[in-house]
Design brief:
The protein has a 6-stranded parallel β-sheet, sandwiched between helices. Helices cover about 55% and strands about 15% of the residues. It has 2 domains: about 140 residues, 3-Layer(aba) Sandwich (Rossmann fold); about 60 residues, Arc Repressor Mutant, subunit A (Orthogonal Bundle), CATH 1.10.10.10. Strand 5, helix 5 and strand 6 form a beta-alpha-beta unit. The protein has 10 helices and 6 strands. The protein is an alpha/beta fold and about 210 residues long. The N and C termini lie far apart (about 50 Å).
Length: about 210
């Protein structure tokens, strides 16, 4: 049985999504109403298979919650729910580690397919924005390579270029050494770097080095 968590500040939306999923697949679902509760749940439940996360919540919004969840459990699949179809939201959450992005207006129709695909290791984006998302990524081909990094990967790259060790970054950012090492590995792969010297050279060349 799939173990899922829905994080949304609207009780009616949570209940609707929960009932639809339970009636459509073999799944057990818990609910929370904000990002902080979602983070605490992720910390204390190792059996969680997928997080279904609203992008717009009071307090800690879905994007910031996503980043923190990925710091805690980088491999946990996260499906973002949104009332917004704008390309930049989809691009931003995918780059920051989300496995999928579904519009709330069509969530009941697509949710089962999205959850099944993501649990199987794939990605899912609402068909309504898929073409525009592809166009946006294609347009980004002319952008610097580091634009493909998530916010946290870019942050780690800058800190490594400034001479920080993985352990120092972990201590300063309140992350585990394993998590920082995961971000380093991912950015090295995305940027085709082999050593920290490659990181420093790129960061300096592109004016990304932050002193202080």
């Amino acid at each position: 049985m799939i173990k899922a968590l829905i994080a949304d500040d609207h009780p009616i939306m949570r209940e609707g999504l929960k009932m639809f999923l339970i009636c459509s697949m073999d799944i057990s679902i818990d609910e929370v109403e904000d990002g902080l509760q979602a983070i605490e749940y992720v910390k204390t439940h190792d059996d969680l298979d997928i997080l279904i996360l609203d992008i717009s919540m009071p307090g800690l919004d879905g994007i910031d919650t996503l980043k923190l969840v990925k710091d805690i459990k980088p491999e946990l699949p996260v499906l973002m729910l949104s009332a917004y179809s704008e390309d930049q939201y989809a691009l931003r959450v995918i780059r920051n580690g989300a496995s999928g992005y579904v519009m709330k207006t069509s969530a009941t129709e697509e949710l089962v397919n999205a959850v099944e695909r993501i649990i199987g290791g794939g990605k899912y984006v609402s068909p309504g924005i898929a073409d525009r998302l592809v166009d946006a990524f294609a347009h980004d081909d002319s952008a610097p390579t580091h634009h493909d990094l998530s916010d946290r990967e870019l942050e780690v790259m800058k800190l490594l270029a400034a001479g920080k060790t993985v352990t120092q970054i972990a201590e300063e950012r309140g992350l585990s050494v394993k998590t920082v090492s995961t971000y380093r590995t991912r950015l090295m792969e995305k940027m085709s770097f082999e050593t920290n010297a490659n990181i420093t050279e790129y960061v300096v060349k592109n004016g990304l080095l932050e002193i202080g």
